[in-house]
Design brief:
Order of helices and strands: HHHHHHHEEHHHHHHHHHH
Structural class: mainly alpha
Shape: globular
Strand order of the largest sheet: 1-2
Number of helices: 17
Distance between the termini: 57 Å
């Protein structure tokens, strides 16, 4: 039952049936499924001796606390409740997923759900793109100024429902599905692989093409490089990623769209990064307040890292970055787990799969405001599930919040802020 409730919650969160059937809105299906599913998952976790020791659990709760306090700090006491209401379903889905993901068969069920959602979203977008079905909802038009006060349509791009209603956000979600789909590849099963892995992968890639997302092209290049990192090493990863990115650029993957800091869309985003730095300067410890970025600037941050440190300050950014560091470290260790038996080999394989999806998300999140959406936390939860499997079997002792974690977290905070600052300065110098 907890698994079914978790899968149902994920489907409802991603497909947003309330948009298709507005009469469902008063029933708040996401909140209802969260309220029913979380106690059921927690009870199952207790009965199956889920340890609840993963540092990611406490870091996420601390980050949620920072979100709430960022509103209180700005003088709105009731804002804490609004923050918890807004971010609560994400916390619930994280905990539910972490508990049910503590078995490989349930990891597979979660991955198949993500893949099925991606395939459906591509079908939905393709119908809108080619046949006009619900075009007003699933198609976005890029406009270009051709004269004073005049503009023309330049590009049709597919998007999704709910929090995927931007082509770039949809592209990121489709990218995440590719490594999860690749985990079902079986050696020397060519017909099966062609039908069940390659054909769906081609369909998802076609959907990526229809989004015309520049960030997707970058993410695809990063994903390809990381996928062969264990074989080619770091240098081979960088070379392959660069070649693929150049090939996508040459093939005009994203349509007639310029890639330059001077191009309107990109320069506007970098200006938003500059605004985020000013917000951090204004309120360095606790930020300007959760969901308040667009109250201070005409655009959202278009960078998950900038959005986080601007709205939650260095305190919230510390917990969020620490969450990423703890997850990356766990997945790296689990990906190197000795394959002494079938069970360990499966955990190692799924750790590499989740690691690839996780890093791909972070690569594209550098250009998108995806700090609070469920996708990141569901991938982290799958990593927590793998950690729990290894813990219960005594295969490996994974570290907690030790000194190395602390140093890495603070260092990445500083490096990321410095990188944003240098990019903004470069933009202003042009």
């Amino acid at each position: 039952m907890p698994l079914l409730l978790t899968l149902a919650l994920i489907v409802v969160m991603y497909l947003s049936p309330v948009e298709l059937f507005p009469s469902l809105a008063p029933y708040r299906p996401v909140l209802v499924l969260s309220a029913i599913g979380l106690p059921a998952a927690l009870m199952a976790g207790v009965l199956h001796r889920f340890s609840f020791r993963a540092p990611q659990i406490y870091l996420l709760l601390a980050f949620a606390g920072a979100l709430a306090f960022s509103r209180v700090y700005q003088g709105w006491l009731g804002g804490a409740l609004r923050a918890w209401e807004d971010f609560g379903p994400t916390i619930a889905s994280f905990l539910m997923t972490a508990i049910v993901a503590s078995a490989i068969r349930r990891q597979k069920a979660l991955a198949l759900t993500f893949v099925a959602i991606a395939l459906y979203l591509v079908m939905q977008g393709a119908l809108a793109y080619h046949f006009g079905y619900r075009e007003e909802q699933f198609i976005r038009l890029d406009w270009q100024m051709v004269g004073e006060g005049e503009r023309e349509k330049t590009l049709k791009r597919i998007c999704g429902p709910g929090f995927l209603n931007d082509p770039n956000d949809l592209a990121q979600n489709l990218l995440i599905a590719l490594p999860l789909l690749g985990a079902f590849w079986k050696k020397r099963r060519w017909l099966r692989n062609a039908l069940l892995v390659l054909a769906p992968a081609v369909w998802i890639l076609y959907g990526l093409l229809l989004t015309r997302s520049r960030g997707a092209a970058v993410g695809l290049a990063v994903m390809a490089g990381l996928a062969v990192r264990d074989r080619l090493g770091k240098m081979g990863t960088w070379v392959l990623s660069g070649l693929l990115a150049g090939g996508l650029l040459g093939a005009n993957f994203w349509g007639a769209r310029v890639v330059s800091l001077r191009e309107g869309s990109i320069s506007g985003r970098v200006d938003a990064w500059g605004a985020g730095l000013q917000m951090l300067k204004e309120s360095p410890l606790f930020g300007i307040g959760f969901r308040d970025f667009t109250d201070r600037h005409e655009l959202t941050a278009h960078n998950s890292f900038v959005l986080c440190f601007a709205e939650t300050g260095l305190v919230g950014y510390f917990f969020w970055m620490g969450l990423l560091v703890a997850t990356a470290r766990d997945l790296e260790l689990l990906a190197r787990l000795p394959a002494t038996d079938t069970a360990q080999e499966q955990v190692r394989r799924w750790a590499r799969t989740v690691r690839l999806a996780f890093y791909t998300f972070l690569a594209t999140a550098w250009f998108l405001s995806r700090t609070y959406i469920p996708t990141l936390y569901l991938l982290i939860a799958m990593g927590v599930g793998l950690r729990e499997i290894a813990h219960q079997n005594g295969w490996i002792k994974l570290p907690g919040l030790d000194r190395k974690w602390l140093v890495s977290t603070v260092a990445l905070q500083l490096v990321s802020i410095a990188l944003v600052y240098l990019t903004v300065r470069l933009r202003w110098m042009q």
